Amino acid sequence: MLGNDDLTVQTASQNNPPPALGNIEYHTALLAQELFAQIRVERDYRYAVVNFVPVTTLKYQASLQGPLMLLGHQLSEGLVTEASRRGLITQDYKTTSDIVISSDAEYVFSRNVERLKGMQDIDFYIAGTITEQQEGAIVNARIIHVDSKDVVAAATKFFPVDVFWQREKVSTRNGLIYRTDS
């Protein structure tokens, strides 16, 4: 699985700086470039990308999300895209067995375990942690072999707080209110 060959994938975001307000796709592409450069694409392997979680709890907690509230979810979604762009086969384990039709939408994604298919031959997990910082978050991503738990690739990237919106004058962190002056 490991190889000295670097993936040479050119993305538009590599050549252009991020816009003034930041861009989640740009930062995710940079993280993916570092992460996937350490592996060789093999069509026989299957990957499952899971949500990135706060390093302090290792589980999703709405109260700890702060200004980067959707970063963990967006990273998992973005890395599915980045893995697919590079030719990796990702399995979407949140896909139901059937199309679910409600009065206002139809969908195939669910977090209801009874609606989901069983996992199919996953070889590697793509997972990571988020460490909130004053001006953003440090994201650590890794590719983990399912059976051996060996980390076959890892990457770290800083995501600035303005990746989702401009700096706020008042924010909360760990249940405390913080005010900044411009």
Task: Write up this protein.
The strands form 3 sheets. Strands 1, 2, 3, 6, 7 and 8 form a 6-stranded mixed β-sheet that branches. With 182 residues, this protein is an alpha/beta fold. The protein has helices at residues 12-15, 24-36, 71-85; strands spanning 46-49, 53-54, 89-90, 95-101, 106-109, 124-133, 136-145, 151-160, 170-173, 176-179. The protein is globular. It contains 3 helices and 10 strands; from the N terminus they run ααββαββββββββ.
Short description:
18% of the residues lie in helices and 31% in strands. With 182 residues, it is α/β, with parallel strands linked by helices.
**Fraction in helix:** 10-25%
Radius of gyration: 18 Å
For the record, give the distance between the C-alpha atoms at the N and C termini, rounded to a whole number.
Answer: 49 Å
Biggest sheet overview = 6 strands, mixed
Oligomer type: single chain
User: Roughly what fraction of the amino acids lie in strands?
Assistant: 25-35%
Return the structural class. Answer: alpha/beta
User: Order of helices and strands, N to C?
Assistant: HHEEHEEEEEEEE
Number of helices: 3
Question: What are the main properties of this structure?
Answer:
disordered N terminus; 182 residues; 3 helices; single chain; six-stranded mixed β-sheet; two-stranded antiparallel ribbon; alpha/beta
Helix and strand arrangement:
Blueprint: H1 12-15, H2 24-36, E1 46-49, E2 53-54, H3 71-85, E3 89-90, E4 95-101, E5 106-109, E6 124-133, E7 136-145, E8 151-160, E9 170-173, E10 176-179
Parallel strand pairs: 1-3, 1-6, 2-6
Antiparallel strand pairs: 4-5, 6-7, 7-8, 9-10
